[in-house]
């Protein structure tokens, strides 16, 4: 019995085809599947891409949307004082007039910063002087007394009393030596060693 041959057998596999992709299967790609290299500007033939990326038009729309997102110039991004947070002319060409205008603005900013710097330094200097007047250092508090020391005579120096004992309480009041009574056995032993009996007259040790 001869079975009817399927019409797709023997035909080349479509580009980007993955068997079983519709039922959740995943495949892998080899160098032979990729084929020859293509230029980056060539349209992408991604027929099995997810929705929104199927055609070149979809990809162009997405690129344009991303570019529009970079330049968020709606009312929510507008400040009454500073204007738009983004640059209105970031996508335009940078010409010589723009360079000259930037140089002028930079010079003005530098000049204004110098003026503010002078006033800022003057204000900081005044604040430091005011703080030192309100909270002087200990050296400044005794400066007048140090100058008066030059007027002290030799007799006045000698009449200055000596400084007392500056040691702490533990050093000033040392512990008393503890005495432990000696047992009587030591006295008995000492008495026994020091007691010498007289030798008899006929002792061989007596000369």
From TrEMBL:
Residues 14-169 form the PRP1 splicing factor N-terminal domain. It holds the Pfam family PRP1_N. InterPro entries: PRP1_N. It comes from the Eukaryota. One of its GO terms (biological process) is mRNA splicing, via spliceosome. Residues 39-67, 108-127 have a biased composition (Basic and acidic residues). Residues 68-78 have a biased composition (Acidic residues). Residues 1-127 are annotated as: Disordered. This is Pre-mRNA-processing factor 6. It comes from Myotis brandtii.
């Amino acid at each position: 019995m001869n079975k009817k041959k399927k019409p797709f057998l023997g035909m080349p596999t479509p580009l980007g085809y993955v068997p079983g992709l519709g039922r959740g299967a995943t495949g892998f790609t080899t160098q032979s599947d990729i084929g020859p290299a293509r230029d980056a500007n060539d349209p992408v033939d991604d027929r099995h891409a997810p929705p929104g990326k199927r055609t070149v038009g979809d990809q162009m729309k997405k690129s344009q949307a991303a570019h529009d997102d970079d330049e968020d110039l709606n009312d929510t991004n507008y400040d009454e004082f500073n204007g738009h947070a983004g640059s209105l002319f970031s996508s335009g060409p940078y010409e010589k007039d723009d360079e000259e205008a930037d140089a002028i603005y930079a010079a003005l900013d530098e000049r204004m910063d110098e003026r503010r710097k002078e006033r800022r330094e003057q204000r900081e200097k005044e604040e430091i002087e005011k703080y030192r007047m309100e909270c002087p250092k200990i050296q400044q508090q005794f400066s007048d007394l140090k100058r008066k020391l030059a007027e002290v005579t030799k007799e006045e120096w000698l009449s200055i009393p000596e400084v007392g004992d500056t040691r702490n309480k533990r050093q000033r009041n040392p512990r008393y030596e503890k005495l432990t009574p000696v047992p009587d056995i030591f006295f008995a032993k000492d008495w026994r060693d020091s007691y010498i009996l007289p030798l008899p007259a006929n002792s061989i040790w007596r000369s």
